[in-house]
Amino acid sequence: MKLGVLISGRGSNLQALIDACASNILPAEISIVISNRPNVAGLERAEKAGLKCLTIDHKFYKDRENFELALNDALEDAGVELVCLAGFMRVLTSTFTERWSGKAINIHPSLLPSFPGLNTHSRAIEAGCRFAGATVHFVSAEMDAGPIIIQAVTPILPNDNPDSLAARVLKAEHEIYVQAVRWIAEGKLFKENGKVIIEGVESGASYYLPPPHSAV
Ligand code: GRF
Known about the structure:
Strands 3-2-1-4-5-6-7-10 form an 8-stranded mixed β-sheet, sandwiched between helices. A two-stranded antiparallel ribbon has the order 8-9. The protein has helices at about 10-20, 40-50, 65-75, 95-100, 120-125, 160-185, and strands spanning about 1-5, 30-35, 55, 80-85, 105-110, 130-140, 150-155, 190, 195-200, 205-210. A hairpin with a 2-residue loop joins strand 8 and strand 9. It is of the alpha/beta class. The chain is built from 6 helices and 10 strands; from the N terminus they run E-H-E-H-E-H-E-H-E-H-E-E-H-E-E-E. It has 2 domains: about 1-100, Formyl transferase, N-terminal domain (Rossmann fold), CATH 3.40.50; about 110-135 and about 145-215, 3-Layer(aba) Sandwich (Rossmann fold), CATH 3.40.50. 5-O-phosphono-beta-D-ribofuranosylamine binds near residues 12, 87, 107 and 109.
């Protein structure tokens, strides 16, 4: 399966996909990496891996529609079959999400539907949540809201701050993003009544990341 990965920054989830493709865990290849921001670390990772990469800087387009047309053309030219948003920080219009309906996924650092949007970890700590996590979901017109594929959960510890929590959740993100892409590439995902069913995964698609060893 040909993947197109959209990034805006660091690219650690991109790196997880690069590594998984290289080690044959994933029956997939990354055909193109596109960043809407120039000179980000994720582009360096893609170049180092010898991948085709492109910067499509949203600032050079007069509106979202034109930016997305460029994005869409680049994805189609590269023969992309699945779009993976990996820290891509642009809101997408329904024209784009409908074009890629069922063929675009996102990773979000919270247990959706709680905490869509930004600053998820500080909001979860602030709210006194006992657990935090991450969600891989299909992209829909509403931001951070499409059908859920897999979630990871980890306890929030009394001494956690947004950075310590983000670091722990990020490790889990890398696991579940690769797992989600793998199921899709293997043709194991089906939708039933707006929910995602995964063939052979009866216990549900979830991943538990235990707290660090010293924690109670
Ligand atoms: C991740 O936490 C992801 O869930 C969110 O943005 C962050 C991107 O990190 N959407 P990276 O660029 O993959 O390292």
